[in-house]
Amino acid sequence: MPELLLTAMLAGSGVAIVAGPLGCFVVWRKMAYFGDTLSHSALLGVALGLLLDIDLNLAIIVCSLFLALLLVSLQERQKMASDTLLGILAHSSLSLGLVAVSFAENVRIDMMSYLFGDILATSPEDLFWILGGGALVLITLACLWRPLLAMTIHAELAQVEGFPVRRTKFILTLMMALVIAVAMKIVGVLLITSLMIIPAATAQRFSRTPEQMAVTAGIIGLLSVAGGLAASWQLDTPAGPSVVVCSFLIFILSLNFKRN
Asked: What one-character-per-residue DSSP string does 87-114 give?
């Protein structure tokens, strides 16, 4: 396997392994639009990183985490519908990012790679952020598995049973922000949420327990990355979108599966 493909496969696998289990909670809690909002903030992080001349990966993570905090804070006030608030912040952060990039006159930037990903251009530094961030999220997810499940099933009952619901919800939001930030290199701002939702939705058809669904989602994510990269290499198609298309095809095939 060429070194270019090996690095891309490692990066894609690192994202898929963590995006699958985390995506289960996105599906269970109906947080798809929430994920889109966070992903759009990543482009604002790119713009600020360029303007302030700081590491782009760090800028993306900080900006995504900041918007996650802002979202949680505004949602708790409940002064407007959640979908309205998410729509405002999603499109505003994306537009702010595009406007801010225009001020970086002396910097040449390929916006397509940020919007749709450029996994084949993954550097060793990008790989460090992806694998390090992914490991951190997986460890946190394992430690908070029971509180997260309890909160997802019934938040009020989980609160009565002594689970820290507010803190757990906050940490879940931060984990989503971190995964979106480190995964932007793989499928880009506009497609990253699909890498969490589609494998999880597919795994739901094959699974009987939450744990089984989380593992299956990770495996489907790995298959999507491998299939997408193979298709991209053979057909000369964009790698990030090819990964998402492969994930979608697996989902279509799963519709023929009937669970006993």
From this structure: HHHHHHHHHHHHHHHHT-TT----HHHH
Q: Measured between alpha carbons, how far is 156 from 102 in angstroms, rounded to an integer? A: 46
| Angle at alpha carbon of residue 252, lines to 236 and 17, rounded to 5° | 70
17-63 pLDDT, tens digit per residue, is 998 899 898 888 887 777 777 777 777 888 888 788 787 778 877 88
3-class SS string, 19-64: HHHHHHHHHHCCCHHHHHHHHHHHHHHHHHHHHHCCCHHHHHHHHH
Could you tell me the residue ranges of all domains in the chain?
Answer: 3-190
Proportion of the chain above pLDDT 70, given as a percent: 92
Q: Is the pLDDT of residue 178 over 70?
A: yes
Q: The pTM is what?
A: 0.84
Give the CATH superfamily of 3-190: ABC transporter involved in vitamin B12 uptake, BtuC (1.10.3470.10)
Q: Largest Cα–Cα distance of the chain, in whole Å?
A: 60
Side-chain-facing half-sphere of 248: CA atoms under 13 Å: 9
Give the residue among 128, 225, 216, 214 at the shortest CA–CA distance from 186: 225
